[in-house]
Design goal:
Elements (H helix, E strand, L loop, with lengths): L3 E3 L2 E3 L6 E5 L6 E6 L3 H18 L4 H16 L2 H12 L3 H21 L6 E4 L6 E8 L2 E5 L5 H14 L3 E5 L6 H12 L7 E3 L5 H7 L3 E7 L2 H13 L3 E5 L5 E4 L5 H13 L11 E5 L3 H12 L20 H16 L3 E4 L18 E4 L6 H4 L6 E7 L2 H9 L3 E2 L3 E3 L3 H10 L6 E2 L14 E2 L2 E2 L4 H7 L1 E8 L3
Parallel strand pairs: 7-8, 7-10, 8-9, 10-11, 12-13, 12-18, 13-16, 15-16, 18-19
Antiparallel strand pairs: 1-2, 3-4, 5-6, 6-22, 11-21, 14-15, 17-20
Helix pairs in contact: 1-7, 2-4, 2-6, 3-4, 3-6, 4-5, 5-15, 9-10
The structure holds nicotinamide-adenine-dinucleotide.
The site of nicotinamide-adenine-dinucleotide has 32 residues, from helix 7, strand 10 and helix 8.
Amino acid sequence: MATMIIEGERAKAVSGKTYEVRNPATGEVVDVVPAGGAADVDKAAQAAAKAFATWSKLAPAKRAEILHKAAHHMLSKVEEIAPILTKEQGKTLLESRLEAQRFGENIAWFADLADKVHGQHVSLPDTTTYGLVIRMPIGVCGAIVPWNFPLTLAANKVAPAIAAGNTVVLKPASTTPLSTLACIEALIEGGLPEGVVNVVLGTATGEAIVDHPLIRKIALTGSTPTGKKVMARAAEGLKKITLELGGSDPCIVLDDADLEAAAKGISIGRYFNCGQACLAVKRLYVQDGVYDALLEKLLARVAKLKPGNGLDKASRMGPMHSETQRAEVEAQIKDAVGRGAKVLFGGGRPTGEEYDNGWFIEPTILVDVPDDARVWKEEVFGPALPVRRIKDLDEALRLANDSPFGLGSSIWTANMAHARRAVQELEAGYTWVNALQIAHDELPFGGVKQSGFGKEHGLEAYNSYTEQKSVVYGGV
Ligand code: NAD
């Protein structure tokens, strides 16, 4: 049985309760884990506060050294961790390897910043005084993570937090705790001091983290409704928050685009991780002149995305993570078809014995989708793509921005004036121009509108785990 990690101890839930983690491809039990609650969050927050007293006072260069060593050790375990992620989440082994690798790389990237972020020296009107602006860690930070990219999204929070001298109470989604535990375990084996990162499990622990008085900042990745609840609740304690929420990223393909590159980008962008990605091509707008040609190329790629158990080398797309998630996407497809949309590809469940016990779904392309269909208005968190013919960039931009979300966006065009307009006018935290929808460590990442606020990745993320303090030295 797996345990939580609190002050380096392998802890059971105070209540003694447990629950099962199941494999979305087979329904089999992968492991039994503690069902933590508020009492466990309290233990973890106390442990993190205790560790903060020493971790925050280490020389930043020493913290960087410890984190590099820990990340290096964790990275030596990618091949052990990847199958754990596949078994609990469903994604293919290739996707799991990439993700586990990203976890370690993210820790190392922020470790590099630990001793390189500086404050400021400020001249003051009285020349016998001067000012400094220094950066201090915040204290204990809460990290609440969803199930779609359990490791990447945990690292996005843990890495900048601990590099900046904070300590963390981390809560993975209840259905994907095992690979997170394995990563944190590997960091501790690699020398991360006990109590710097504590992992609590269970369904009710998120709210307890938001409420806990010792926890000063909350970083949540999750759905927009959860973000709203967390924001309201965090207001009680006037806590700092970063909210990375839902998205419905538009992708525009214009007549002069490189269609082969666009089809590849769209296929990866929509179907990676079985479509369960925040940054993903979720609405496709294609200009009239290349509509048929682009769809032909896209169709050829999507036809190769064989669904299957993520552990099977032949699988190109794992199952959906849960029954509820599949039912949601199926209902969105049904709604579109009911309103007159045509299914160009997929639209159902793959058939055969290997699919009987998992939450499999076919990669799906929908065309002639009416404007009032749910797939245009809601986030589609699965492998279904609505496509719409557009006459020009004006129409594409109007439709693209007609969404409550503003996470990612992309455009494929050879016309740089059109690209520039799209960059300026698309309401989103990220715009890719003729490029795969990949988030980079170096670039701040975060949404606008109902996709949340605050940044992960980049210097901005590091700074968001610090407080600026002004200091005046007199009599000098
Ligand atoms: P979710 O909102 O249901 O849960 C996310 C996490 O929040 C889980 O750990 C959950 O236990 C916890 N939680 C739920 N209710 C809570 C509450 N009231 N207080 C505190 N914690 C609470 O999301 P999900 O279904 O696990 O993930 C899918 C969603 O996440 C999608 O909407 C997706 O777009 C979004 N997402 C966003 C990003 C991004 O960076 N913007 C990345 C990945 C996923």
